[in-house]
């Protein structure tokens, strides 16, 4: 069956890997990007080559008004197709201890990673309810949510722990409407997010500490996300899957 998948944060990393994996005939991909339109266009071009129809939508997910616009444009792009959401977009900052955390940094972190993700889900669920066909949401959390990351990325970890809680609550709320809600928690994954956090060599330094002896790839995380999104996981909801090599 033809379907629409909205992927937030699709210009690079796990979001881009999800787009590449999901791209196929009879798939309409709505690829959200924040600032990196060039990256999103590259992902869109590759998806079209594989047969997908693609719509690009830029939005700052720290801005509720822009999230509302994202939801409206997504709904209008192909309103008849069954709708699914990969709630992936997120940000990180440089390593910091408690005394280094500022209100500005934490406000931005939670605005995007937590509040933004919840508001995107709100928009997606509104469309799913109008369609009355059920649907599927996969939130992208992080193993940091259960590690705490003291002295490193404690605010990021807290923002993702909130996503774990939100996933469970939303799954409970939406199960009677046949809308499944799950999450994945990636571990040490080779993506650009480490450079954005000021540690481009992080995987080279600590990737071997994972029980499986290596960091993971964005494609490995995407495989789990797309399975949870699919009808093959039709009896799976309220579940958080670690994709972390045993970490």
UniProtKB/TrEMBL annotation:
CDD domains: SDR_c. Keywords: Oxidoreductase. The keyword Oxidoreductase applies. Belongs to the short-chain dehydrogenases/reductases (SDR) family. This is Short-chain dehydrogenase. GO terms for molecular function: oxidoreductase activity. Residues 3-191 form the Ketoreductase domain. InterPro entries: KR_dom, NAD(P)-bd_dom_sf, Sc_DH/Rdtase_CS, SDR_fam. It comes from the Bacteria.
């Amino acid at each position: 069956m033809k379907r629409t998948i909205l992927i937030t944060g699709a210009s690079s990393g796990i979001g881009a890997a999800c787009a590449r994996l999901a791209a196929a005939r009879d798939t309409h991909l709505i690829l959200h990007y924040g600032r990196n339109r060039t990256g999103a266009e590259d992902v869109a071009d590759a998806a079209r080559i594989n047969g997908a129809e693609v719509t690009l939508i830029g939005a700052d997910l720290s801005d509720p008004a822009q999230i509302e616009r994202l939801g409206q444009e997504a709904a209008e792009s192909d309103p008849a197709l069954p709708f699914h959401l990969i709630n992936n977009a997120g940000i990180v900052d440089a390593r910091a201890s408690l005394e280094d955390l500022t209100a500005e940094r934490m406000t931005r972190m939670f605005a995007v990673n937590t509040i933004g993700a919840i508001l995107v889900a709100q928009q997606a669920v509104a469309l799913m309810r109008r369609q009355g066909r059920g649907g599927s949401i996969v939130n992208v959390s992080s193993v940091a949510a259960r590690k705490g990351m003291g002295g490193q990325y404690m605010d990021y970890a807290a923002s993702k722990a909130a996503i774990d809680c939100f996933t469970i609550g939303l799954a409970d709320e939406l199960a009677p409407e046949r809308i499944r809600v799950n999450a994945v928690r990636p571990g040490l994954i080779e993506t650009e997010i480490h450079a954005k956090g000021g540690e481009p060599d992080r995987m080279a330094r600590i990737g071997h500490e994972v029980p499986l002896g290596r960091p993971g790839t964005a494609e490995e995380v995407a495989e789990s996300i797309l399975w949870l999104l699919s009808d093959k996981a039709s009896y799976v909801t309220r579940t958080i899957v670690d994709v972390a090599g045993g970490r």
